[in-house]
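Chain X:
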Amino acid sequence: MHAVIRSVRASVSLALSVSPRGRCIAIGTCLHLMQRAVYGSCITVTPKCAERAIATMTSAGPTGTDDHGLVSVGEVRSFVQRCVVAAGAAEKHAESLAAVLVAADERGHFSHGLNRLGMYVMEVREGNCDGHATPSVVRETPATAFVDGENGIGTVVSTYCMEIAIKKAKEVGVGWVTCKDSNHFGIAGFYSLLAIKEGLIGMAFTNTSPLVVPTRAKKSVLGTNAMAFATPAKSGDSFVLDMATSTVSIGKVEMEQRKGLSIPIGWGVDKDGMPTTNPGDVIDGSTGGLCPLGGGERTGGYKGYGLSMMVEALCGVMTGGPYAHHIRKWTADKSPAHVSHSFIAMDPTVFNPDYKQRMGDFMGEMRSLDPVDPDKPVLVAGDPEREHVAEVEKDGGIWYHRNVISAMASELGCCRAYMHAHAHTH
């Protein structure tokens, strides 16, 4: 196993000193090595491993830089799925998680994609999350349902809930589903997009571990409490708002720390509640935390604070689950998370048959506004993500910063529980 770890690290180092094409191969080999650390079938960079890596990696595009490498979408999806299965999850549940994490990276939300894999693997491996659990409906009406997540993988529970909401919306115009005893569900927008595919408006809300310091406070007691609103428009267009109620998610702070960068003022505060540019002050929940959306009080942070409480009212408070600081600490507490979610699907045509046409016109008017910078046109929510997806398709893969891959080597290759996965699965 130590040979595996050394080979993984060597592969990452190799990626720094070769051509863009070589970086693709090296990073692909690194992913394969970490997969084999799970299955115990390869402990060195053999020609066979390299050959498979070359076959699945693509040529570097013009956007490549010295500290990034290109990985095919299929390669990332396979890597995530195998790691989660090896940690002890059911194959179909691993597929669900892989779909959400890859979608995050495809859409440019790198804080919630591969960056989160280590957390999911350890949650399943250590038994904090049940990788085989199937959610169930506790009670329902024609338009609502209350679901018990059974401590299952958050993406599995959430997809189940939104599918119920969609079914009810098609039948009676609106479907609202809440659930308790779930786990981190990835990007909220993934579930609202499920509704769009059915021609419906979709909304998703979730509470999280306490990471946000309320306005005028010094202690982090609220979650980033994400929310998403997505609506279809004419000609396949859509408006997709996917956001945390904090200025940024904790994942974005982690990404800056991994890159060795400072964070902007307004992202977080230190142990005294004062603005900080040190990501370490924010990530260590015992010393500081994130700012609510808007930052400080003078810049409207109290509005993000209010939005966070609104999401909590729809999640933890409504479902009877833990809320705010009653939810376990982020990554420090090894008990089940008991996260709550809320999902809404709605058929806009029950109110206006011309809704999609009007929504498209509305978005078109915003996009046609005269921009401050001619090179930066006015966009609407969802446009940056669509552009990123198009770039991924054009380049033939996703560009990852080398430190993300290095972190995978550290989190997955050097963790005792993960190294014992082979004994667990075979």
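Chain Y:
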Amino acid sequence: LRVTREDLSHLIRKNTIRLQTDTSHLELHPAAAYAILNKQQRPASTEPTAFHIFTDGSAGRGDMSSDDEQTATWAIVVLEEWADSDHQQHFSLLGWQSGVVTSTTTSEAWVGCSDQSSGSGESSAMVWALLWILQ
């Protein structure tokens, strides 16, 4: 990635990256679906002890591409970890976000990628995760 802080400054604002919470339209692994259906919400009186951020990126010739061009995508998932009154650790889905990699330097969503490769998808996911942390 060849990107500067100035290139990303418009994205480093409070609430620029809003996490999605609706998973009803996603194709989830059965274990992930079970975890989401049986989730526990952190009580408002309890502070998170940690955040766990998972990133992924990929590229391929799927439904989102035209003329048999490769399209790269990225995704992040954020879990919050918290302890109950018995000091048992729990995890809650805070949210997720995903997108298509852009290699157009004038795009609002450009984060430094120059191609539509799986590496660009992975890199974009990490940059978006870091931007979420910074906001």
